[in-house]
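Summary for the steering committee. The consortium agreed at its last meeting that each partner would contribute one worked example illustrating the joint modelling workflow. Our contribution is presented below. We chose a case with several input lines so that the handling of multiple components could be demonstrated. No manual editing was applied between input and output; the record is shown as generated.
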Amino acid sequence: MGSTNQEIYLENKTISLYIKREDLLHPYISGNKFRKLKYNLVQAKKEKKETLLTFGGAFSNHILAVAAAGKEKGFKTIGIIRGEELKDKIAENPTLQKAKDFGMVYEFVDREIFKERSSPKFIQQLTEKFGDFYLIPEGGTNELAIKGCEEILTETDEKFDYICCSVGTGGTISGLINCSKNSQQVLGFPALKGVFLREDICKFVFKSNWDLIADYHFGGYAKVSIELILFINDFYQKHKVPLDPIYTGKMLFGVMDLINKNYFPENSKILVIHTGGLQGITGMNNLLKQKKQIQINVYD
Ligand SMILES: *Cc1c(COP(=O)(O)O)cnc(C)c1O
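What follows is the complete predicted structure of the assembly.
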């Protein structure tokens, strides 16, 4: 199942740019989270699990996706959330409120404990507390998630020279690399600062036609600048494609900047993947409003 490629018209350029609208796959299980959950849900059913347990931060696209998928497929869902202070603030947090509406049960843990989330001891404690569950790692990245992301590209996408995507844990780009042609170059734009990603991706891929462009994280995960917000608003005005401020906005800012700097050779065909994440806009706007900063325009 492929999603539509929408053309983004560029002025005075020999470059052609298309955006794959994976954000339209599902209203809550958006973009790459849909792909990453697909085979995990099949596996959980196969193992006769009744509950999905996963981890995430306050505005996590993954948390909402797991809650919505659980509701749709008949699993109970448990979310282990970073930050004890959020416990009394669910109603103020659009992501957590929505996931709760889908039936997700929360365990709020402080940041130190959250760091232990993959330790066997912590998992054991969670099993004692909640009983048996199917564990999905934070961000949803595992072998089955990558298998799902290998379905993002279809045969008609073979004509593109470059495939660009945002990078969080590296699961999505790994799937894209595995299903790309050797003649294609896959470029990842990390949404966070850090050096671990490259090794993480190497664990999952067996090709070398890829690179990370680390210049567009805007200071780190979930950090935004006025320039970025203005770009997102302008991009919508011009192309009628909404972007989120955490992932796709930064990636497209980077791609447009590189196009302007003539990074891509003449006549290049570029496909950018819209990995979704639009549910995060409301939460980000609430923060921007508190800081009296310009917000992301929302249209529907
Ligand atoms: C989670 C997410 C990503 C990052 O995906 P990884 O597989 O973790 O690299 C990118 N874009 C959006 C919108 C996301 O929600």
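Residues 31-33, 61-62, 139, 141, 166-172, 244, 247-248, 275-277 surround pyridoxal-5'-phosphate (CB under 6 Å). Strands lie at 5-8, 16-21, 51-56, 76-82, 105-109, 134-136, 162-167, 185-190, 210-212, 269-274.
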